[in-house]
Design brief:
Chains A, B: Keywords: Amino-acid biosynthesis, Metal-binding, Methionine biosynthesis, NAD, NADP, Oxidoreductase, Sodium, Threonine biosynthesis. 2 copies of one chain form a homodimer. By secondary structure, chain A is an alpha/beta fold. Helix content of chain A is about 35%, strand content about 30%. Chains A and B meet through α1, α2, α6, β12 and α12 of A and α1, α2, α6, β12 and α12 of B.
């Protein structure tokens, strides 16, 4: 009896696509034993079919015509590894409409168009799997959908962007400033020439939207995520955070609260003993708190050809197994609730503040009064170095609603003794 | 249209059983939405049906007759949370023979009788799920079988026993000795009156056998695991390890090597910067290295009613979903290879040694010669405190085959300058 074969079409053969192809080849026998079926890459969509990619590809497998893959009825699984929301989105829709299962690593597409795509699978009874779209090789989508499914998820906090985690790790270890470490990251290929997407938090925010959608069974799209990046973090902030017993990390945070769900991405001070605090360099990790399981954390490489391929190929194997057993879509969209989002002004955090003030008696009293008038209570105030008539103050608030803090900050800018509010960074994981 | 119901039978209502019941009740609606079916606990086997367990149970659900559950054709999923390999094993066999799906938290049974039980599911097309048998609430069985399925697994190292990790954490933090911390753990309920199973490594070794079976697709039973416990670790060992930049952890270790697979459980020195080194107190964690994904780690609570229930109920949900879609056993036994085990004598490690020797010139030369004669090369030798005519030596070897080290140790015991080989502990995670 000949072995059953399932044909796959790859859309894209860049870093991730090349990794997927290599893993499918290298571990072909293992994959066949585990799924009961041999996976054959029958077509790969590329822009330039003539380019040498250092891969030994069967003749004729490359094509620059999407219809060669999307209209081929023998291809049952389409693997989208192009990225972006342009043609990729169009191709995935077409694949799903034709009843094909789709595996994608595309966070942009899933964070913006997840609902529309899942609606197409419901018609077509196909799989739409996207493990690689969040945290690369770290299993988290399937973990939330399946392994931790018995839990009501209380909180998810993730280090979801390797570039910024590398930069913050270097800034912490070496005391270097943001611009220096950004250039270093660019030289190493960890940061792009235009680093906006990483350093301003947009990449992490898209992943945060996807995590929130799954954690709370409620569709959250990227524009609903509150975002702040790390470009305003200075060497001073990191030094002071260290002195206070914290590290600074860019976090994707989703929380269940009685007033709605919180979905936000911003830098935060984390206590040094928090499980996420030791996650350094380009590594990613996701901390999940569930009502039954308690605290868990999942750690690994959030990017790179082979780690991402690990997640993509696991999805392909699931899709193939589901085709063999005639149950594509057995675990489909889990956004069956519509929970309200909490306004950012009502989010409650501790906060770290760094102020530049006039260095003379009575200044602290004026500042403290503004905080008090806005129901912001201070946990700690430290005067850092002073230069001539100016001094730097570091303050840590107790937990306070964001709106009260904003009102207090507005009040501070009206004081002539406050020269500048240098930075405000939320504190997480401290309760 | 009335909602579909799947009936469940619980075998046991102790700590884990009570947790499973509570999670099923508390998150009943969420579970129904995710699986498409309502789960009803139709029978619970207990020894004493009259005892008050602080749970609000429907009348008549408790029984002391196993046949009430095993012979009830309306019960489709049997959840075994009794533990041990006596009646539990018999009941699970009977359930599988009747075509029921089985969810179990029973590491003893799975580590000793996994093959026989899986053979029964192959006949019956039922699920046998056992996520909770290793590391409590941490997803690792499904992670290896599904999420990391595209990888050839190179190594798994786990902190799999909370009791011993708590003890080692306290010994490290406080410098206390083994007996003191054992009594403390017993007073807190972390260690049992007879602590043998935990402190001698048998509990961790059973979990190691299960992890090895899945990681290498090769059935490894508990008796095949090399085991050493932590009862010989002293406060001195921990102090010296700290000085060398290591922490001591009890690890379950499985490794793929050209000469066969290694499956062992023993204390080990881990570099302080290793991801597992920061896993403290009763927490568990499993580090997995795959050929595609690279380094990953999974962290959480390895025991306790609710964390374990999180894993058990996730398995119940999978089993229920598979029944609804008529695909029980869609992911079944993955032991389709028979890879050879490597003899312990051929395992290569760095080693830490603590010796009590006569404190006089020329002693080190004699010792070094014995090591050299046995092809054991030393990376570091430090003389620790001396008392009168005796001194303590701490040595670290380069990587060496276990047999060569054993031969060297036999040679040392023949030297009259060596009073005692106080301890030998392997070093892991250092390459």
């Amino acid at each position: 009896m000949s072995e059953r074969v399932i044909k796959i079409g790859l859309l894209g053969l860049g870093t991730v696509g090349g990794g997927v192809y290599r893993v499918l080849q290298k571990n072909a026998d293992l994959i066949a034993r585990k799924t009961g079926v041999r996976l054959e890459v029958a077509g790969i969509l590329v822009r330039d079919v003539g380019r040498d990619r250092g891969l030994s590809l069967p003749p004729g497998v490359l094509t620059d015509r999407p219809e060669d893959i999307l209209d081929d009825h023998t291809i049952q699984i389409v693997v989208e590894v192009m990225g972006g929301t342009g043609p990729a989105f169009d191709y995935v829709r077409r694949a799903l409409k034709r009843g094909k299962s789709v595996v994608t690593a595309n966070k942009d597409m899933m964070a913006e168009h997840g609902k529309e795509l899942f609606d197409l699978t419901r018609e077509g009874k196909s799989d739409l799997l996207f493990e690689a779209s969040v945290a690369g090789g770290i299993p988290i989508i399937r973990v939330l959908k399946q392994c931790l499914a018995a839990n009501r998820i209380e909180a998810v906090m993730g280090i979801l962007n390797g570039t910024t985690n590398y930069m913050l790790t270097r800034m912490t270890a070496e005391g270097t400033d943001f611009q220096t470490v950004l250039q270093e990251a660019q030289a190493l290929g960890y940061a792009e020439a235009d680093p906006t997407n990483d350093v301003e938090g947009y990449d992490a925010a898209r992943k945060t939207a996807i995590l929130a959608s799954i954690a709370f069974n409620t569709r959250i799209s990227f524009p609903a995520v509150y975002v702040e990046g790390i470009s305003r973090i200075t060497a001073e902030d990191i030094t002071y955070a260290t002195e206070l017993g914290y590290v600074i990390k860019l976090l994707g945070i989703v929380k269940d609260t009685p007033e709605g769900i919180e979905v936000r991405t911003h830098p935060a001070l984390l206590p040094r003993q928090h499980p996420l605090a030791a996650v350094n360099d380009v590594f990613n990790a996701i901390y999940v708190r569930g009502d039954a399981v308690g605290e868990t954390m999942f750690y690994g490489r959030g990017a790179g050809a082979l780690p991402t391929a690990s997640a993509v190929v696991a999805d392909i194997m699931d899709a193939a197994r589901n085709i063999v057993h005639r149950v594509p879509g057995i675990i489909s969209c889990t956004c069956f609730e519509e929970r309200p989002l909490k306004e950012m002004g009502r989010v409650r955090c501790k906060n770290y503040l760094r102020l530049r003030v006039v260095d003379r008696p009575g200044v602290l009293a004026q500042i403290a009064r503004v905080f008090g008038d806005n129901q912001v209570s201070l946990a700690a105030v430290t005067q850092k170095h002073s230069e001539g008539t100016k001094a730097e103050l570091v303050l840590v608030t107790h937990e306070v609603a964001e709106q009260n803090l904003r009102d207090a900050l507005a009040g501070l800018t009206g004081l002539d003794v406050v020269e500048r509010i240098c930075n405000v960074i939320r504190v997480e994981g401290d309760s």
